[in-house]
Amino acid sequence: MNSVIAIALNTFRETVRDRVLYAFLIFAVILTFAGIVLGTLSVGQSVRVLEDIGLFTISTIGGVIAIFVGTNLVFKELDKRTIYLIFTKPIRRWQFILGKFLGLSLCILIITALMGGFLMVLTLANGAPASSMSNLLAAVGSVYLELLLVIALATFFSTFATPLMSVIFTIGLWICGHLGQSLMSLGSMSESGAVKVLFAVIYYALPDLGKLTELRFELITPPAAGAWSPGAVVGHFGVETLLLLTTYVLGYVVLLLSLGTLIIERREFN
Amino acid sequence: MTDQVIVTENLVKIHYSHFLRRPSRALQGVSFSIARGEAFGLLGPNGAGKTTTQKLLLGLLKPTEGTVCVLGHPAGDPRALDKVGFLPENPYFYSYLTAHEFLDFFGRLFNLSAAQRKERANELLKMVSLSDAGSKPIRKFSKGMLQRLGIAQALMNDPDVLFLDEPNTGLDPIGRRDIRNIIKGLKQQGKTIFLNSHLLPDVNELCDRIMILHRGRCAAEARVQDIATSGNYRDLEEYFMDAVARAEQEYNEQQATAAAATPAKV
Question: What is the dihedral of CA A57, A63, A65, A69, to 10 degrees?
């Protein structure tokens, strides 16, 4: 485990020293500006719009960092040949992949926490009830869960593809993950059995990220009058569903990291 | 009884091109062994297979045929790597780290405790004359400093076997002398040294035994002392030139025989 921690800390250091945390400042500027403008434009809905924009921006900024740093994680070590120094030490290749993933995940966690905290302060300042903060926190958590999957995708592709190709593959799958339900509906509309099967295979092979978006929507939608229960998860999402979604995403993460390990195990370093 | 720490038998490595999978033989049946405490020099012209051999010994490449054993374990086995130090050619280090952080990172990979890592890093930085640069970012290091830091990282685990790939490349005469003295000191400590180098005077001074590779085959193997005392050669350079020329002539003759045996296309 010491080796995993060493690789993770080194990756974290590298990312932080690349000034990635400055992305928080971009977020703060966008959100503060949006808060001022929306406060004057939207009547009675400014908090909801602020939350929507805030969560979208956290997801986008976090995703951009996860993709552009993640796709370079292993490639850079190969390109600069620092991998020679790592793999001539008593370390297993799965420890290297896991360490890389955890290092970037820690960095993204800090950025997400900073952005999420700022969003909460801003929504409170705009009149949101303090009791709704637990739901907003859960919504930010679901964004982080999605970002973990993006990091795992980027890490996986970086074990065999160039950064440019990895970026294309990762963004492609990330978008497809959000369109899973639409693909399924599209397939069901077709009269061809083969097309139906094809779309079903694609749907089941890809992570269904639409569920996380749906969860976030439910979490920040104010409940109907009289139905408010502070701290409770609103809508049809219960704790069990949350756990199921978390396990579902983490399952994909484990699968992608295992595949990345298999590739790097078989790889030779010329 | 001599304790063999590195043993290779009939080592063959075939590389395949990316798209057409065209084979190219990098090594063709190389066998050798290195005893504990011995300094072994691997020589050869560019493309002879020196770096391939070293990567096979470290587990960075897998042999197509043959076996590689390091410290009684298959090459690349973590049990062997635990006792191995490696300095690659033209090493690139993590430029965002300081020298102390860099050594601490490798200390962690060897499961050293925080106190051990600190003590060892200080000791090694002193040994390679980098004590004053411990807190300096690596990106500000000169080529000579990088090479010395590379040696320090290779020694973090106090290894039994050291693999040094062109440790003196690109260094000025003072830098070369410093590195040579460090390697001499390690040899005196009884460490087994595998030196891959083009610089024959350094090999002559540091190694007990050499092997010359030519087109992936062993062209010659000798004890350095025997070359000097045999009276047939002025120095290692003359021995090297002669061995390579003979190997090249042999290769050309083989090619000519093979071409003659192949029926001409009409």
Answer: 180
Show residues of chain A in contact with B97, CB under 8 Å. 10, 13
Binned at pLDDT 50, 70 and 90, residue A236 comes out as: low
Residue A92 near chain B (CB below 8 Å): yes
Asked if B88 lies within 8 A of A2 by C-beta distance, the reply is: no
**B45 CB burial (10 A radius; 0-12, 13-18, 19+):** middle
ipTM of this predicted structure:
0.88
Q: What is the CB neighbour count within 10 angstroms for residue A30?
A: 16
Confidence at residue B2, expressed as pLDDT on a 0 to 100 scale: 57
Mark A197-210 as b/e (b = at least 16 C-beta within 10 Å).
eebeeebeebbbbb
Residue B192, domain extent: 4-94+159-251
On whether residue B136 sits in a domain, the answer given is: no
Note which residues in 100-119 of chain B have CB less than 8 A from chain A. Answer: 101, 105-106, 108-111
Residue B8 lies in a domain: yes
Q: Is B52 left (phi over 0), alpha (psi -120 to 50) or beta?
A: alpha
B122 in any annotated domain: no
**Cα atoms found within 13 Å of the Cα of residue A40, Cβ hemisphere only:** 5
Segment B5-38, tens digit of pLDDT: 999 999 999 988 877 778 888 899 999 999 999 9
Q: Which residues contact A113 (CB under 8 A, 6 or more apart)?
A: none
Which residue in the set B15, B88, B96 is minimally distant from A85, CB to CB?
B88
pLDDT at A227: 47
> Which CA distances in Å does A226 have to A223, A233, B24, B44, B168?
8, 15, 77, 85, 79
The stretch A96-111 carries a mean pLDDT of 95
Q: What is the pLDDT of residue B264?
A: 65
**B264 within domain boundaries:** no
Please tell me the total count of domains within chain B: 1
**Can you give the CATH number for the domain in which B75 is found?**
3.40.50.300
Provide the b/e sequence for B227-257 (b: ≥16 CB within 10 Å): beeeeebeebeebbeebbeebeeeeeeeeee
Q: What is the pTM of this model?
A: 0.88
User: Residue A185: pLDDT above 50?
Assistant: yes
pLDDT per residue as tens digits for the range A6-41: 999 999 999 888 877 777 778 778 877 777 777 677
Asked if A269's CB is within 8 angstroms of B61's CB, the reply is yes
